[in-house]
Design a protein that fits this description.
Elements lengths: L18 E2 L12 E2 L2 E11 L6 E6 L7 E5 L5 E7 L28 H4 L19 E4 L17 E7 L4 H4 L9 E4 L15 E4 L4 E8 L6 E5 L4 E6 L2 E8 L2 E3 L4 E7 L6 E8 L12 E6 L5 E2 L35 E10 L2 E4 L11 H6 L14 E4 L4 E9 L6 E4 L4 E5 L13 E2 L1 E3 L6 E7 L4 E7 L2 H5 L3 E6 L1 H8 L10 H6 L3 H4 L3 H11 L11
Amino acid sequence: MFILILIAFLVSSINAASIVSRSQSYPLSQPAVLGPKTRLAVGNKVIAPDGFERSATLVDGVFPGPLIAAQKGDHFDIEVANELTDDSMFKVTSVHWHGLYQNGTNYADGASSALIGITVIIPSNMKCDGLRGPLVIYDPQDPLAHMYDVDDASTVVTLADWYHTAATVLRYVIGNTASSTLVNGLGRYAGGPMSDLAVISVEQGKRYRLRLVSMSCDPNFQFSIDGHNLTVIEADGQLTEPLMVDQLQIFAGQRYSVVLVADKPAINYWIRNLPNTNDATYEGGTNSAILRYKGAQNADPTTVNPAPKNPLQETNLHALIKPGAPGIPEYGKADINLNLSVANVFGTFYINNVTFTPPTVPVLLQILSGAQEPSQLLQNGSVIVLEANKVVELTLSTTGRGGPHPIHLHGHAFDVVQSAGNGTFNYVNPVRRDVVNAGGNGEQMVIRWTTDNSGPWFLHCHIDWHLDAGFAVIMAESPSDTRTQLIESMPHDWDQLCPIFDSLSPSQLGGGGRKSYEEAANISTLLFPPSPLH
């Protein structure tokens, strides 16, 4: 099982010289690694990952947050300490362990409006201010281990967008664009200084499992390495049949493992990570990092970026372990067939004509208090009740601007029986994952899963601005089983979250208040209304 990771395997050939780098980009030292029993301090610090200084929300004062690594079967015991002090950003938060299915521990999933006792959702876009980091679970019995030689902290590759304005301001702006792209926490922005770029060091003749983690708040990326192929062996923690590509598109929240074969001349090669934003280029080393062979100069590469000949197509990915979607292999023949239609109306998203607003009482608490039926669960239209041990087939289609949308389901991996933009269905050996591209205007995707993990689970767009604008529903899976399973086992501290949060004043919550909205008005005239908190 490989969580929050992507592995890259690069193969190909290219000949190019290097020139002395103006950026003085050096190989990164081995990053700090935390174990499954650890403490995380969430606080504020001024950083300049692309050369532009700003205050950020960070774990242990670094971006991205430190790698948390464990072995399959380990028990996690993580203390999170809130040390946030910057009033311009939110000072309360929760942590979601993306890609962990929390089977039997739904209360610890961290999705605030579904699980935690608060009256408003803590904006997911705290992530956009820096609160993000990788977590990897290594499998000592990995059946594909024969394909690579190196798989450690140095081969975890984080991909992120970065903003020069706080998310508490940008959340009011309808349509905003990241200032830069960061690879392993470093990058450059257009017109900015020649700041350091991330360097991934390799040795000729070795094979590397690169674990690619998209921590993006918004854009998807086209990832490639000049002169090398990548062999995909995992998607979102699920092993795949090996598939060689020369470029892959990775959406917000997705992870891939790819194997890179370092069999090219020992020089420097550009790592390219192009976002789907207007006018994005590689000029001046933007949207880039460096693959540096042992013995190469400390220099920016001069390698070229040919058009891809074999880009990743999701339909070519196939699950390695127990392939096949559950249920009758025919469209519309699952036990439960859901159709969700998503529309974007002036920046606000509606699912089946309902925009998601956080309930005043979290759904899990409603269930534990005895609510069972859809009519009893708030908010009306945003909670879908599912019976236990049923096969669910979900068709999601989108209209309007803002796509393509990466859709994430908490609590489950699912089989992608129809990929967006593709007219065929595959029930025999589709890719299995937990974040899928739903496409753009007029497109649809179809997924299947089995309701074998009771609890309220978020289904939402993983573009944080879209989630904040209502693109979500809650799948309340077997409420009666949830109540039976959790009512005696939940820790007492969980019961205190609602009273603690509800007692906080606006100044204790942070977020910049009215000032954030006024700052947003100086950026754009296309704005969401101000928060009712302020």
